[in-house]
Amino acid sequence: MWGAPAIRRGVCAVAQERTKPLNHNGSHPRQRRLLSLGGGLCLTLAISASISSAEDYKLGTQDKLTIRVVEWQTVEGAFRDWSSVSGEYTIGPSGKLSLPFVGETPATGKTTAEIAKTIGKTLQDKFGLSDRPEASVEVAQFRPFYISGDIQSPGQYAYAPDLTVLKAISIAGGMRRGADGARTERDLITAEGSHAVLSDEQLRLMVTQVRIDAELAGKTEFAAPMEIASLPAVAGMVANETAIMASRQKKLTLRLQALDNLKGLLEREIVSLGQKSETQNRQIELARKELSGIDTLAQKGLVVNTRVLSSERSIAEMEGKILDLETAMLRAKQDISKAEQEAIDLKNDAESELAVERQKTVGELNAVTLKLGMQKGLIAEAGGTAPAAAGAEQAISFVLVRKGGDGKSKEITAIEDTPILPGDVIKVERSGGPLVR
Hints:
Helices cover 52% and strands 14% of the residues. It is built from seven helices and eleven strands. The longest helix has 80 residues, at 305-384. InterPro entries: HH_AprE-like, Poly_export, Poly_export_N, Soluble_ligand-bd. Residues 194-372 form the AprE-like long alpha-helical hairpin domain.
């Protein structure tokens, strides 16, 4: 961050023993871009720490959500997709979310998990369902952030997770180019911001690859690679990928379990049909013995032929029932074979999807690694051509304007690594004096 070592030495005594980053000649070139923040920086650092450890993201106006609702029907043993409710929705100016059948639901200040729970409970209560529908709510697009001041392209920009002041400046094209040598400063900031973005993307792809490998190996959990496991952002990435793994495995397990239940029902049906068939065979055997006796009496003229015909007709009907039972048994066995084949197809499809996802992830990881190498070169070039004179540079200050839970806006003094939240306004100003050394 800009001058963080120098500020911590001057303001926060706790940080005096921390190792300071050095360049090849042992100096601290980035300290030249520090603000004279004075005693208020410890408060800023505390705010940054509290933001980074905040709880689940709280939704707000202009957030766009992707919602999907499904229902597991226990009686039928199948999933029901609520396609009329599923889709993309935007939280309106009133802070409410409007869904078919659910109506308007307050969303501002709530998490996606709370919205999902409300949707499922509302649908169950409204339609009197025995099984509660499960809603999946994800943020498809965060509400934008805004950047103003001495920026190349001030305005409104789409928000991305893990956004910091430095990354936001990079997205806005860096510092405004001027006749005072700000081009080198802007190029350096842009390169550093792009490098930070690519570094985060590289970590995410590395964690994703490990998760996919664990799924392909049939594991239910995984750990980040040793070389990145200690980095602060990795723990959250591992948690996200673990949730994806658990959701996918749960879905596959439920579908396989439904097929197993179907097979069990069919097998019991086959056993019942077999018992009925045995009973019919015994009745046929008895009827044939009876017919043999009647036929002998008919030959002697002791009984009429109609009784013989009646016995033969009864035997024919029982034999027809046996054929029907055998046909039903064959049909049940075919259904069992179909269920087994469907289970095999589900597993094969899951493995195929993972293989394709892994191939894509590896390709993206290689591309990001190449881009990181390029950004390192740009950083080295911009750093090497930065002005050496103290008067050639100017101090840069950052202020965040953030709306609190009470609806009132407050200003927060920020530094490079201060996290940005959706809806924040970043004010960037360049002072007339030289940067603090």
